[in-house]
Amino acid sequence: MKALQITGENEFEIVEVPQERPQDDQVTVRIEIVSTCPRWDMSMMDGKDMFDASKRPDYPLPPGFPGHEMAGTVVAVGSKIASLKVGDRVAALEHLIGSGAYAEYLNYREHELIKLPDNVGWKQAVSFELLKCVLIGLLQFGDLSGKSMLVSGLGPAGILAMQAARLMGASRVVAVDITQERIDFVNGLGIGVAKHSDELGDERFELGYDCVGAAASVQNVLERVDSHLVVFGVLKGEVRYGGHLWFKGITLESYKYRSFEAADQALLLDLVANKGLNTECLQTHHVPFYRYQETIELLKRQVAIKVYAYPPTDFEAASEVK
Asked: What φ, ψ does residue 203 adopt, rounded to 5°?
């Protein structure tokens, strides 16, 4: 089968690799669509570790890595598989180790997948792994009913968070960013209220959800919340928690990853399939794998929110060179 492989800094190839048979506790998925995880893709191509920019990745990366947001069709099942069958439509909920999803096929364990209802399309489902992570963070607040929330950052996570918080009961949700083009794009979608950070005035919120991670962003949110802030983005820099925050009893909490249980999965599907959470809006640009450098440039310039590809067809012109 074909896969994209990052072989060095700003270097990649389309390679032929063996298609592995599923183990007893695995299924093989034909990947119908795959989407970027911008920070992963840019870091891997820039010669930087995802979590520590002072380190370099160990090149060449495994074939298909760092692709992990995908949706596809089950084409083979191991002998111990109980909940999935050939022909089922699924989306990835996790897969970060070993070979990745920038490939035609990949093997998964059952808990790494979510079965899709018929009314959820491929472009809606491809970034369910990100939506899962966003929901885990939002659930750290407990019941959102009737509460106000400030979401910082209008990247993919922030765009999902502002919608999910409102659909989960928040009474008022405002999302902020410093890029006017992204603010205008989000407001044009009609999915909620987006503002420039400088336009908040004296607005205050009970809850804050930071999807940026930069210390300045976290600090800005922290100074505007009265109860609880969860930092979803990978924190970079130092945040000041002064006495005025301590006296208010404000909770400052990091994102806590955990397993995504059956009730969580039901919530995710309900938000998308029944309540109208717009996940497809993240998929703004389609670029075949053999033009992967173009994908990276679109992400770096923030022209694209996410870039997607179709493995069944998007390897075909690989002979045209990168």
From this structure: -60, 140
Contact 205, 134 (CB under 8 A): no
pTM here?
0.95
Give yes or no for a contact between 86 and 75, defined as CB atoms under 8 angstroms apart. Answer: yes
Tens-digit pLDDT profile for residues 133-152: 999 999 999 999 999 999 99
Q: Is 251 exposed, middle or buried (0-12, 13-18, 19+ CB in 10 A)?
A: middle
Mean pLDDT of 268-293: 98
> In one letter, which amino acid is 179?
T
Please name the residue ranges forming H helices in 26-91. 38-45
Q: How many other C-beta atoms are found inside a 10 Å radius of the C-beta of residue 249?
A: 9
CB 31 within 8 A of CB 4: no
> Tokens 């399309």, residue?
121
| Mean pLDDT, residues 269-276 taken together | 98
Token duo for residue 165? 């918080």
Measured over the CA atoms of residue 66, residue 71, residue 76 and residue 79, the dihedral's sign is positive
Distance of alpha carbon 306 from alpha carbon 38, whole angstroms: 7
Residue 321 banded pLDDT, cuts 50, 70, 90: very low
Helical axes 156-167 vs 128-139, angle rounded to 10°: 60
Sign of the four-CA dihedral 22, 26, 28, 31: negative
Q: For residue 8, give both structure tokens.
A: 């060095």
Q: In what order do the strands lie in the sheet with 148-152?
A: 193-196, 172-177, 148-152, 205-210, 225-231, 251-254
